[in-house]
Amino acid sequence: MTGILAWLSSLPEPLLYGALVLAAFAENIFPPLPADTVIALGAFVAARGDGSALGVWTATMLGNIGGAMMMYGLGHRYGLPWLLQRFPALFPAGAAERVTARFKTQGMLAVIVSRFLPGVRAVVPPLAGAMDIGAVRALIAMALASGAWYGLVCVLAFRAGANADVLLERIAGQQRTLGLGAAAVVVVVLGVLWWRAQRRRR
User: Fold this and answer.
1) Strand, helix or coil at 120?
2) In the chain, which end has fewer C-beta atoms inside a 10 angstrom radius, N or C?
3) Residue 8 and residue 2: Cα distance in Å, rounded?
4) Residue 160 in contact with residue 186, Cβ under 8 Å?
């Protein structure tokens, strides 16, 4: 994590946003990539410079939705057997079957909910394409889920970066309780990201 943070900190703002686009895009193709962590650290770095939370979120959404719709297109054109052969990392044991069952019983709600679940999030776009769910409907559902999740990640991490100096001063000074409370929020966010990464690896 420190290595990623150092690398992101070395990038000028346009390249920082570009790195976030690529990380969010690649997550749809190679799920073990810790895209959530990269996005959170990118927002933290952006807050320490001249970046904005909106800029980080926009870059993330462009990459994430772009990658998701590319995989949707491949699933729609070539079908599930081809996907299983070409992108085995996308499909943990039983993931395709579970998501397919949700699609059949819950419809578009399953597309939205499944995009929040570690381990199956990357399965959703190609399966939606393979099951011939409409492209516009799938796009809207995935954009809603990704927008909400990454909006939360970007805002919390950006605020942590913007207030890092204040937090350190408060932790070191008399207002220790408030500083530790704010630091705890950051720890919880990073802990959730770590947990999602561990679940995804399993």
Assistant:
1) coil
2) C
3) 10
4) yes
- Give the chain's end-to-end CA distance (angstroms, integer): 20
Q: What is the pTM of this model?
A: 0.73
Question: CA–CA separation, 28 vs 35, rounded Å?
Answer: 10
Comparing CA positions, the residue from 37, 41, 184, 54 lying closest to residue 118 is: 37
Query: b/e string for 74-84 if b means 16 or more Cβ within 10 A?
Result: bbbeeebeebe
Could you tell me what percent of the chain has a pLDDT over 70? 75
Work out the pLDDT band at 177, boundaries 50, 70, 90: very low
Dist CA 156 CA 191 (whole Å): 13
Residue 146 tokens, joined:
């990704």
Mean pLDDT along residues 102-115: 74
The C-alpha atoms of residue 183 and residue 167 are separated, in whole angstroms, by 7
Question: Is the CB of residue 18 less than 8 Å from the CB of residue 175?
Answer: no
Instruction: Tell me the average pLDDT across 65-76.
Output: 92
The pLDDT of residue 174: 42
Closest CA to 202 of 83, 128, 117: 117
User: Which of 179, 196, 166, 176 has its CA nearest to residue 40?
Assistant: 196
